[in-house]
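note to self — DONT lose this again. spent like an hour looking for the file last time. sequence + predicted structure for the chain T wanted, 384 res
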Amino acid sequence: MTVHYHAPVTTRSTVLLAGGGTGGHIYPNVAIAERLREATDAEASPLTVHFLVSDRPGDAATMRKLGLDFSASPVRPLPPVRKPWRAIGFLLAWRRAIAHATALMREHDVRAVVATGGFVSGPALVAARRLGIPRAMVNLDAIPGKANAHLRRECTQVFSAYASDVLPGARVVGFPLRRISIGEGDRTAARTRLGLDPDRPTLFVTGATHGAESLIRAMMAIVAVPRRAAALRSWQVFHQCGTFDPAVVQAAYDAAEVPAKVVAYCDRMGDAWHAAELAISRAGAGSVAEAWANATPTVFSPNPYHADGHQRANTKPLVEAGGAIVVTDHIDPAQNVAPLGDVITALVADPARRAAMREGLVAARPPDGAREVAAWIRSAVTRR
């Protein structure tokens, strides 16, 4: 059963922002909507936004928390080759999803469609092509997935956070980030808002939504080594650990006498990055973009379970700018202590190098991707 959640249809033209299944596909669209809203407020443009997400419960929870107008698509992810019996269900859901998207576009007088990749994007782009609606795809990773490589043919415009031979002709822009992901103003004020000591240099540790258990256990093992813990005692750690038990992580820092605040989730990521003199992070596209936008010197430890190595590829522009270091995650905490611990200890003790890393990130920072896509939307709607 297809479920709709939307406000009453008005005479205002609508932009459909498609992407779901994970927050990584939803939040870039939220950023684009923010920039559209800013332009609408400035220009009194009659434009509304509607989101198309998956019917996974997490997507609905995210949209309701944000208070945004959305519909849930019945589309399903492409089944793995080793499970061919799921193909029929996928095809049936695909057809329903195209029909659903078509009806939604007609109902809301959709004038432009933007898709941020993932399995929700396909039916929306196909429906938009059939209806003759301007449509754009925003590729978020350095290594585009097979779906994005195929869907580019459905688009009138392709944006990408990375240059790629797989997406010839794509317009390279910055990753679309929400305003709350970009810190502003004084660093000490950001620390205060996070409940930290405003005067202590801060190490920010994040594994994104799920926390990254191997990275968490690596940090716990590092601070268990006295000489490594000693290097951090004049600092403080702000650690966002996702689904991992925050009390366990907090206990490790406390036992090592390292000042720390551990949280499961941080809804002020801009403050977290801006507050930090140094960060340790996974290398998902969103995390890399946040580090870059906030010019935070970062040690990236890419997800070791991704066979295509796309997280390591995501870090390349920051490494080339001199603003980031990549350390391999060996999964075993004992094997991670030396390589990750050595880099952390060295950077904590070297403010000049951190300053140079920050300068490199500022100099190489790309344009605001959300603003660029929003400008395309306004132009497409005007022409239509």
